Amino acid sequence: MGVAWRAESRAVAQRLEAVARLYTIRKRQYVEAEFWHTDVYEAVAAEVSAAQNLSRWRAGSQVNTAVSLFERLPAVAAVFARGDIDYRMVRFALRRTANVDDGTIGELDAALARHITRWMRFSDKKLTDRLDMWVAKFDPAGVRVPPAAKDNRYLDVAPDSLGMAFVGGVMNADDAAALDQRLEALAATVCANDPRSHNQLRADAGGALGRGEVTLACQCGSEDCPAAAVRESAAQVVIHILAEQGTVDGTSDNPGYLSGFGVLPAEEVRAAAGKKTAKLKPVRTPAAEPEKGYRPSAPLKDYLRWRDLTCRFPGCDAPVESCDVDHTTPWPFGITHASGLKHYCRTHHLIKTFYSGPGGWRDEQRPDGTIVLTAPTGHVYTTEPHGGELFPALAVPTAPIPDADAPRDPSEKSEKMPRRARTRDEDRRARIERERQQRIELNAERKRQREAWLAATYEPPPF
């Protein structure tokens, strides 16, 4: 176990060092990208995402960790590379030293490298305290300031188990109280014979609240139910479910797909399709002839949406609702057809467009929607449409792709890239400066309070 643990740490350190080296290379290569919206961090994250089949968020987090570790804590990185500490220790060290002044971080790094191996047994709380103690020795203003609780509020809605979703978060107390009362009020609109538990009624009330309904449909099954009022809706809410016709008809139990949440059991699909407000719309395979305009027609966009389901970049699972439709070969040289169109999220669309050309990203598309991407390193990655994998009828070749060579991108193409007001490093330094100033003020206030307490309790000698 010990040998395997050390080998794991060495392997992670080696991987992060490779990411940091790649960032150094790309930073020299893409000098003009510092103020680009999709900057060098995003460009390197795209390569990390493709190489490791990670989401954009996880790849970006890895880039930030690797660059910070090898630029700010190289001595700690060397201890990590020997397998003497693990990734947890590295993350804590980076987090607690993030605000340390650049002129001081080298000395602190050397001190941490000498002591950090003895802290592996510490709990998260004890480890935080020990790291903060060493930061305070070298740079008192660099000790992290806990964020205000109000700044950490959030509300997540995410896929959970099959056909279910998780909803949870931290809200302002008055908002949470209003939500709690609204759920209770909706849950109370059913009759006493409704078979659901109180928790189940509150959960179902959340759905009714999302649809803007003022009452919850009772499930007692009685024709004389006193709660059988007509439900009203204050908002027009639309959800999209993809399923085979046999699933809707009941002749098949193949699951469907709820956009943004994943696979949906067949019985859930039929329940949704059986509602009075449900609209059933067939997904039609595009005609063989490409369309003439730049923008795809509504039926073609509908087909592309269900064929792809997510961004087509390797590792990216951004839903199509937040993606752009991209011509694989730039229009008008490429075709406006399912064989020549696919979805990229905005970041990967910009990377494909602006980090392309000789030595950059290149992509090609097959008639069945398969995308073949070649990275700047020459590595080749293939992605199949997610909808086509779940529903094979959507992965059939739609039309042959005519040969077309688009001219090279003009040298002034970079002028069209969306720009940042400040670089990523400038944003980081501004955040650190704000937090350091908070720490200085907190330290000054603590010193003032201590001196006031000493003055109030001090008794001069009797002579």
From TrEMBL:
Domain of life (superkingdom): Bacteria
Cited CDD domains: HNHc
Domain DUF222: 5-308
Annotated stretches, region: Disordered: 398-463
InterPro entries (alphabetical): DUF222, HNH_nuc
Biased composition (Basic and acidic residues): 405-451
One of the Pfam families matching this protein, by short name: DUF222
UniProt-recorded name of the protein: DUF222 domain-containing protein
Species for this entry: Mycolicibacterium parafortuitum
